[in-house]
Amino acid sequence: MAEAVRHDKTSHQLRLLSDALESGRLGPVKRLVNTLSPAEIGNLLESLPPGKRVIVWGLVDPDDDGEVLVHVGDEVRESLLAAMDPDEIVAAVEDLDIDDLADLVEDLPEAVIEQVLKSMDRDNRERLEQVLSYPEDTAGRLMNPDVVTVRADTTVDVVLRYLRLRGELPEHTDYLYVVSRRHQYLGRISLAQLLTHEAGTPINQLLDDEQPAFDVDESANEVARQFSDRDWLSAPVVDDNHVLLGRITIDDVVDIIRDRAEHQALGAAGLDEDEDLFSPVPRAARRRAIWLGINLATAFLASWVIGRFEGALERIVALAVLMPIVASMGGVAGTQTLTLMVRGLAMGQVGSGNLRALLAKELSVGLLNGVAWAIVVGVVAAIWFQDIPLGAVIAGAMAINLAVAAFAGVMVPLTLRRMNIDPALAGGVVLTTVTDVIGFLSFLGLATLVLLR
Amino acid sequence: MAEAVRHDKTSHQLRLLSDALESGRLGPVKRLVNTLSPAEIGNLLESLPPGKRVIVWGLVDPDDDGEVLVHVGDEVRESLLAAMDPDEIVAAVEDLDIDDLADLVEDLPEAVIEQVLKSMDRDNRERLEQVLSYPEDTAGRLMNPDVVTVRADTTVDVVLRYLRLRGELPEHTDYLYVVSRRHQYLGRISLAQLLTHEAGTPINQLLDDEQPAFDVDESANEVARQFSDRDWLSAPVVDDNHVLLGRITIDDVVDIIRDRAEHQALGAAGLDEDEDLFSPVPRAARRRAIWLGINLATAFLASWVIGRFEGALERIVALAVLMPIVASMGGVAGTQTLTLMVRGLAMGQVGSGNLRALLAKELSVGLLNGVAWAIVVGVVAAIWFQDIPLGAVIAGAMAINLAVAAFAGVMVPLTLRRMNIDPALAGGVVLTTVTDVIGFLSFLGLATLVLLR
């Protein structure tokens, strides 16, 4: 399967590096590390246990330090910064792009931030301060204020001359932005157009005013959605007066798109996208303990429900043997519906407009599977315990629980969302609480009614 | 929370559209739909139940049909194609870019493919046939053969003249590729460089030979990883003889990056990234039934284990009441470790190089939490049932199961991967089977040893 061959390159490097580290010869390690791109070094550092991580971090070319810091998760970054002295940090980060620096700055010690600001020229300092003045997770934070602007009332050859005078363009420049006298964003012209049109062509005529600008307050998630839906590579950012403030490029958005998609898998286990594979044990244990504690509370709730039926359990021990089946199948079926719903909600594909249709579909699927597996489970149980009424009871409970699971799979994430609770995080816990409780209740309840009359 | 405000725009559109559809006035629906980009229309169609989906699909501007088809998941695409006649399909897809067309072609009816090929000019047909000759999920399939090449032994002004003669450049062109006489890839020059250097500058001198080319057989996953790790916007693709074949751009890779990240969450529930929110009920039921069947088998295994202890359960009913707690806590703790591991494996961050360190860390976390929660559960159980030995038994079982869960959380995904089974898909089932069996076994086994002596 595809999964199995993924990234063999990285894990191969990891093994080479690990062998070299074990042998204690740091020369080869250093050579190996410095053939990698900063992002790959970051990836590698994330995969190393703390002791080795610090050693390898010390061997990274100081020129790459800043870029590596940009490319690792928050927790790992913290551990890397802890191994540097203030001067090293300043040297590492002072040459970063403004948007990357803004991304880092919150994790830096106060003294270092001041030193970095002091070491910057006034223009860049003002730009950084401007970017930092926008809240995290907004377009303002993602943008790079370093853009090339031109005026509309000019011609291709004037722009070409200006660019030749200017020299190097900012990285990933694919468009120049056309602005008014008051620096308001009017549209853009692509470098390709400048290259393919005659010298005398007025810029006005090439102006593409279809590319909308992001408001500086727009959420990072909405920015990511539009980039990915509209296949943009870059987009301008403006303030309330439509004054051009900067530019967002796709490379800064790709990480958000990936984090957002990963959020569902990690959130369901109570984990965070920024979790370090090698978090210090006490910290990891504490964080996971919260999740275990919440689940323990729900497990006790289920046990309490079972406890209501002690009488039935005492008389028919087969009930104790079979009861986890009903609960677990409900959990599995409900999780399937929940998983589709959480993704649909995250993509904006679920709302009051299609809720009824969705509920009807999921209930039909749940009932169909409920009846089918009820028959299977009922027959197996009846044969196993030589007890046909017992088979009928578990079959009935199964059908009930799978229908409830489908209903809960749709309604739990919607309700959580309405309560402003992230369904990717809390959905699974709430759902399995419902399917456990209903599973035990329906099975033991039916058994009491039917078998203990 | 951020999740709660995500994509309110899309779900707002969805409601507007739904209201308009209910009212039966299709004029406003049509106007609303055609203000959206093709990707947004695709997103909207995915969120509609089959009946409404067909109506809205009929209202989409035919010029957008092709792009919309590119932007929806496989299953939804099938349902849209089923609503079109062959001529419509041909008209919709014939103007697509080669790489997008190649992506669609497998879903098209045989007769339509022939007609499309016939309607293309010879150059494009040959290009399409070339792209289709590469296996799915390789660089060859992702690339667009439409690239602008220049020779190294020329100067900026010659290139500029050539570009002006050529006219429009392919979409998202940021670099021109420099090739040898035999069309071998030598390096690239950016449009920005052409614009900022004097007319007489030799291309040789501007040539950037640091951008590596992908082999045409490279896996799509490796392509995605490198794009995302190295912040590339485009990269060349070459054959075995280093002859330039085409170019991959980031917009085609973003979808792979997102799908890959989503794969973990959906796979864990036995779902597929391409699943239609509104799959026909029989199809959805059948697919999920497989998953439920697998889980039922493991649930029966757990029941069989419980059945071995009928004697103990008959004598102490509290065992039946408490036993789900031990199993469920093990499942939760193990899933946390598993989730981190599956992500680490997908990112190439887990391998033989750091396995021992990882296992040590996860076992420490598991033991720490195991002991902590064992005490809590033990005390609660002892008070609840007024039975101190019972509390001691459940505490012991809990500590054992959480340690086993940590061990299984690390080893299960590694073992599955070695067996070429996708851990994102099968990991959860295998893991919870282990934690259920060990949970029941340790609790009921300890109870038999300690309480029934």
From TrEMBL, chains A, B:
Homodimer. Belongs to the SLC41A transporter family. GO terms for molecular function: magnesium ion transmembrane transporter activity; metal ion binding. The keyword Cell inner membrane does not apply. Acts as a magnesium transporter. One of its GO terms (cellular component) is plasma membrane. Keywords: CBS domain, Cell membrane, Magnesium, Membrane, Metal-binding, Transmembrane, Transmembrane helix, Transport. PROSITE patterns: CBS (PS51371). Residues 143-206, 207-266 form the CBS domain. It comes from the Bacteria. InterPro entries: CBS_dom (IPR000644), CBS_dom_sf (IPR046342), Mg_transptr_MgtE_intracell_dom (IPR006668), MgtE_N_sf (IPR038076), MgtE_transporter (IPR006669), SLC41_membr_dom (IPR006667), SLC41_membr_dom_sf (IPR036739). It is a multi-pass membrane protein. Its main location: membrane. This is Magnesium transporter MgtE. It is found in: Cell membrane; Membrane. The chain crosses the membrane at residues 289-306, 318-342, 363-385, 391-412, 424-452. Pfam families: CBS, MgtE, MgtE_N.
